[in-house]
Structure formats: C-alpha cells, structure tokens
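ok trying again, last paste got cut off:
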Amino acid sequence: MSTKKTKADQVEEILEEAQRAKQEADDVLAGNGISGVRAYLNSKERLEIKKLKAYLKQADSENQILRDRVEALENLKAISDPKRKKIPRRKGKKRTSALLALSDIHLTEVVPKETTSNGNEHNEEIGRERVRSILDQALFLLKAESKRSDLFHLHIALLGDFMVNADLHYKMERSTPYEPLVEMEVVYSMLHEEIGRLLKDQPCDSVSITGDVSNHDRDTEQMQMGMSADRSYDTAMYHRLSEIYTEPDWHIAKTYYTTLTVGDFVTTTHHGHARGASMKENSPGVMIPRWTWLNQQQKIYGFNLWVQGHHHSSNVISSPFFTHVSNGCTVGHNGYANDSGFRPEPPSQQLVFINHETSTVDRVHTINA
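nice, full thing came through this time. structure:
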C-alpha cells in the first residue's frame, strides 16, 4: 500500500499546522489575559505613566526650589526679627522699664540774658550744671521706681543736637566759642563723664542706648538724605562712647529712625527734624504732631512709643494706638526763639516709664533742670 501523500493531503496538513500555530498564539494571549485591544491600551497607559513620572519629577524639582526659598525667608526673618526674649517677672511686682531722653543740649551755646528779655542765660558751664541736674533727678526717680516695681531695663535715647556747630549756618559761629571739631571734643568729654556716671548708678538689670542723627550734627551745608549717619558729629561721638562703655546694647542710627524692642514693647526714636515730624502749637498751647504722617510711620515700624526732640518742647500726647513724647532742651530759650515769638519753656528732659504687662506708657516725668 502506497504511503506517499497527495497534494490535497499536504495542503490539509499545512492548514492544520497553521490552525495549531494560531491556536497556540491565541492560547498564549488568552493565558496572559491580553487581547489586541488590551495591548493597545497598555501601550497608551505606559505612555501616560511615563508622562506622569516626568511631571512628578518636574513638580518635585519646583517644590524643592520653593522649599529652599521658604527656608531662606525663615532664616532672614529669624535674623531681622529674632524671637523676643521672655523677661522673667519678680514675684509680686509689675514689670516696668524706663526711657531717658537726652537731646538738644547745645552744650557750648552762648545765650546772653539780654537776648531773651532776661528770661534765660546759657554757656558751657551752665550747660554742664543743667545736664548734671537732669541726670541726678533721673537717677533718683529710677531708684524710687525700682522699689515699687520690677524695673528691669533702662533705654537711654540720645536724640542728638548736643553741639551748636559753628559751620551750620551763617552767624552761627557767634553762638559758640569753638570750631566744630574742638566743640565735638568738649561735648564728647561731657557725654563720657555723664553717661559713665549714669551707667554706674542706675538700678536696672540691663541697659540699651540708641543714638540718633540730628540737624546740628552734620558737616555739610545741607542735610544729605541717606548719608546723615556718615556726615554726623553725633554718630562719631556715639561710636567712640560705645567702645568705652561696652556693656550696654548700642543701636547707633544708620537712618533718621531707630527702633528698639524691649519685651513686647516697641519704641522708635528720631531727632525730630524730618519734615513729617514737625509739630504745631494749638490755641491752648499744646504742641500737636502730624498724626497722618505718624500713623504712616507706625504702620512701617509698629511702635508703641514715638520719642523725638528738635522742637525744644516737652510734650506728651497719645492716640489709641501709640504715645508721642516730645523732648525738651537744656539750652533753654535763646535769641532766635525769642525773636521768632516761640513760647518760652524751662530747660527740661523727659523720663518715660513703661508698663510691660499692658504694653503702654505708664507715666512721663518732665525733669526741669
């Protein structure tokens, strides 16, 4: 019997083999749970996953940049606005601090009695006596307050105009016997002696000293905005004093305004010669500041207390948000003030007591020389 396959048998065998191959492929695909449509969808999913991974990588990179920026800002904030030190309270006593304002001393100014209708006389010797009297009374009041309350801190506010400065204006040389650099040495000697005595005898646990620029302290004909501290005889004296008396916390002005924080209480000091810091006397004789300008400054500096000099007038006035203290002078009424029709005031300086339990000014003593 012949075993040779016919063409029909061969074709049939090829078809069966193809069918088996197809079935095997179908079985493999079916076994993996994959169909043609599913394979297509999987390719799209893989593409989407790849895109999402790329997006997440980019987002991680951007988030890291943001985290770095936040960390940098937090570090800057920690430097510019350090955490306020909690001040321990002495048992049974309210916490208080004090601010002594010293300004408009004009130590060497010569004021003949005849120029003030015999109302005031001043020279270097009288000036020294008046400053000494102010500090003696301030020390007495500070020691008395330290017995009544927890008087933990003293802020000495040097508001400027300690000199006359013969170069400042025409004919100003007639008001002082000294040239500016010599006068600076005379005034520095007085400040060295009196601040040293004050620091030695004051009763507080800690002391801060702020030093402001002024208008009689400049070595230029006109004020140089933004450069006042670099052209100031006053700041030169402050820096020398800070090297001698290193224990106080010194804040020497770089601009017109100096801000100091003690506990939760913020004080801004300024000599008072900025145009916005001007004051005007009302009909009852009270010196009124420019509240609109001050409110703007309060939003900038966040102060509870504003202290300024320049106007040679001791005055205290408050708003619901802060207290404004104007400091007097020790030179007293002079010929310029007399001929300008300004109201005479006795030589004086201001001593402010602050209640740290209410973050308000407790009271202000006007100390007459």
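cool. The longest helix spans residues 36-80. The mean pLDDT is 85.
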